[in-house]
Specification:
2 strands; mainly alpha; 155 residues; 10% strand; Arc Repressor Mutant, subunit A; two-stranded antiparallel ribbon; globular
Length: 155
């Protein structure tokens, strides 16, 4: 039995980060996900491909923090819905470069507007300076976690 007070556990930054993700993911699934038949991981993948076409699955895994299997499932779902095109990488035939199809671009355009509105709602009570500081802190945290995660997967 732990002698640590519950409030100490609830104050852990990691648990707060997980809670923020969960509290923001739930409304996504209920609104946007149902409307567009889109999972959260499919959206994460689309969001990156919308701004950085031609990424590989490995790059998507690195940039989203998702494991390779979750990225693979997201890509398969996007491909089934005809929202994704794969093209052979001319420098490495074992890899595919990923691009949104015209249908994927249309969904991306619709969802990104809602995502930006949601982000504005979430940060309405946070000053620009606080948001800039949070952004910098998160970048440092991501770099720290990524450097301690071991070597990236190939592909």
């Amino acid at each position: 039995m732990s002698t640590e007070p519950a409030s100490a556990i609830e104050d852990m930054v990691f648990l707060k980060l997980v809670r923020v993700v969960n509290l923001t993911a739930r409304p996504f699934r209920q609104r946007v996900g149902r409307e567009h038949q889109l999972t959260l991981n499919e959206w994460r993948t689309m969001a990156l491909l919308g701004s950085r076409p031609g990424l590989t699955a490995t790059q998507l895994a690195d940039l989203t923090g998702l494991d390779k299997m979750a990225v693979s499932r997201a890509l398969a779902g996007l491909q089934r819905a005809r929202r994704l095109h794969r093209h052979e990488d001319p420098t490495d035939q074992r890899r595919s470069r990923l691009y949104l199809s015209s249908a994927g671009k249309a969904v991306h355009a619709a969802v990104v507007v809602r995502a930006r509105q949601r982000e504005a709602e979430l940060f309405a009570g946070v000053s620009a300076e606080e948001l800039q500081q949070l952004n910098g802190t998160l970048d440092k945290l991501i770099a720290s976690v990524a450097s301690n995660a071991g070597p990236p997967a190939s592909g």
